[in-house]
Amino acid sequence: MKNSLPPSDQQTLAGLRSREDSSFAVLYTFYYPAVERFVLRNSGSRAEAQDIFQETILVLLEKVPTADFQLTSSLKTYLLSISRNLWLKRLRQAGRVVRAELEELEGHSPATEPAAFGEEAAAQQQTQVRGLLARISAKCQALIQALFFNQKTIQAVAQDHHYTSVHNAQNQKYKCLEQARRGVRNNSA
User: Fold this and answer.
1) Measured between alpha carbons, how far is 20 from 85 in angstroms, rounded to an integer?
2) pLDDT digits over 13-34, tens only?
3) pTM of the prediction?
4) What is the CB neighbour count within 10 angstroms for residue 67?
5) Where exactly are the structural domains of the chain?
6) What is the per-residue pLDDT for 123?
7) What CATH number belongs to 1-118?
């Protein structure tokens, strides 16, 4: 029977440090499909997705053996952040249009992004996000700011914003993300 869950992040990182083939297989089995989906949705091909994922693994392999490397998010989030930044950088260099969906932000924390991609890319992303946030309601801006930028838990947001339950706060989060997605679709139409 095929295992449907990846081993723990710490097991995978330990395997990568010792260059175990099984850890590389874990990366390709569990994390490559999400990278491929992102690249394909953003003007790329399967071959380009494979290139980006291999570059991502190289970045990871440079960082893993260092003494100060500490994973502050899930391995999947970390890998997706590296891949996303590499792909967006490649698109900008090629002069191709970048059309990333807001849903890509979900589960993404600016604190988990590698700093190796420069301040220019970060500034451009911040400008895009600010433009997107300007098109949604103030209530949604506050909610998204708290969740994604201030990294508050949904429980803390529910309490701070006076929602009657965590479920209501999650529903509002969904509605706000939908509002932002509509803004992206309307702006690109």
Assistant:
1) 26
2) 888 888 888 888 888 888 899 9
3) 0.49
4) 5
5) 1-118, 135-189
6) 62
7) 1.10.1740.10
